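FIELD: query
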Amino acid sequence: RNDLQGPAVTLASDLETILTMDNESIVEAFVSGSGPTVAILVEDAPAADELAAALRRRGRHAVATQTPAML
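FIELD: result
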């Protein structure tokens, strides 16, 4: 739980748009720290690549990464 997520969304309302994106592969989305960084967990590496590309098309900086368990 991040107690700073609510205030971050209040100050940067576009975060809410990202946090509530309609994408079947999203497992969880949350504000990291006090914002405006958002972490989005997805089902697999291809989904992460597709989501990052979609966010970049919207003008966002997005990077898909993998945990060692996914390698």
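FIELD: remark
The first helix runs from residue 5 to 11.
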